[in-house]
Design a protein that fits this description.
alpha/beta, six-stranded parallel sheet, 14 strands, eight-stranded mixed sheet, 10 helices, single chain
Length: 355
């Protein structure tokens, strides 16, 4: 029995590509008490053989519909081409299976809404793979948003940077490729969860920098709310390692919070909380010829996750297991993913890139 005193989830895999083998499969191997791969589908035999080495009793399929005819399955994990995500998820849900769908859940808001309708008919058994909501650096950013030492917050900056001359279908437009969908939906959801109010204005741009396809590997969006806070969100596939930015930066009247990608500790650089500025007001008179900067005492504070806080891809999969096996409420809803698709689709629609 697993740590939950329940049997492992019987998992079926659809699409044996990089996402499956880099992101999902290692978890299934590492947690045999939680997951047992019982079926796998891909047209390439060599990839099915990789699964068979770790799960010898796993049934192998070339056709997805044949795999869905199996009944001894708890969860179907879909990591296929983005243009096929809705079709494959609909078929799994119609068979009554719990379905985990890789990013993005759809390429248009209309398709996402159709998928939502099927998910509702299927007892809400669809889980979107929005892994960024479980990242340690995102959880630290959430903590910082409520840290009174920062004072009034005016900007959230989110960055994900890499340098990769990508040449797979994820950079081919006709297959639904492009950073707007494969990377930005996670970052947009993070921004929406951090913002205290929903955005009312959006500006965005798309570019191709280092990838070898015709789709964008740079996506940048600025979301503005009715209040003072805005979110500046960027994925950039053309940034060399030494010059990469913090993954989250929160700017406020009394300082800044920053955290590096994947870190479990962030940093506050703030005006000393004990410091009181001398009283002063603006004047319309001709100013003195002098520097207006003041001597400001600054302190640096480390911010760490509370002990026992689950985070990362392992926490994501533990939540998936608990949702299916113990009916524990999943912490995020399908509506979160739909909101991200709405903004991603707007970015695509309003961009002049490639037109």
């Amino acid at each position: 029995m697993s740590e939950y005193q329940r049997p492992p989830l019987k998992v079926a895999l659809m699409g044996l590509g990089r996402s499956m083998f880099f992101d999902h499969f290692p978890i299934f191997k590492r947690h045999p008490s939680l997951f047992k791969v019982v079926a796998a589908c891909d047209i390439i035999k060599e990839r099915r053989d990789i699964v068979a080495k770790d799960f010898p009793s796993c049934k192998m399929f070339r056709q997805y519909t044949d795999m869905l005819d199996e009944r001894d399955i708890d969860l179907v994990v879909i990591s296929t081409c983005s243009v096929d995500h809705v079709k494959h998820a609909m078929e799994s849900l119609q068979k009554g299976f719990w379905t985990l769908l890789d990013t993005p859940i759809a390429l248009t808001l209309e398709d996402a809404q159709i998928l939502r309708g099927q998910a509702q008919k299927s007892k809400n058994r669809l889980i979107a793979m929005q892994r960024g909501l479980f990242d340690a650096d995102f959880q630290l950013a959430k903590m910082a948003m409520t840290d009174s030492r920062l004072g009034e917050i005016h900007q959230i900056v989110i960055r994900q940077e890499d340098y990769i001359r990508r040449d797979d279908w994820q950079v081919v437009k006709r297959l639904g490729g492009g950073a707007t969908y494969y990377a930005m939906t996670d970052l947009i959801i993070q921004a929406l969860k951090l913002l205290p109010l929903p955005p009312i204005q959006m500006w965005s741009e798309l570019k191709r920098i280092a990838s070898l396809g015709d789709a964008e590997d740079y996506a940048h969006v600025n979301l503005r709310t009715r209040g003072q806070i805005s979110a500046d969100v960027e994925f950039n596939g053309g940034v060399l390692a030494p010059s990469r930015s913090p993954s989250f930066m929160i700017r406020a009247e009394r300082g800044t919070f920053t955290v590096r990608p994947g870190a479990t500790e962030g940093e506050l650089i703030i005006i000393d909380p004990k410091h009181n500025f001398p009283r002063r007001r603006s004047s319309v008179r001709t100013p003195e010829i002098s520097d207006m900067h003041e001597e400001i005492p600054v302190v640096t504070e480390k911010v760490t996750l509370p002990p026992g806080t689950g985070h990362g891809v392992s926490e994501f999969w533990h939540r998936v297991y608990a949702t299916i096996r113990t009916a524990a409420p999943y912490p995020y809803t399908l509506e979160d993913s739909l909101e991200a698709i709405k903004f991603a689709a707007l970015m695509k629609k309003t961009s002049s890139f490639g037109k």
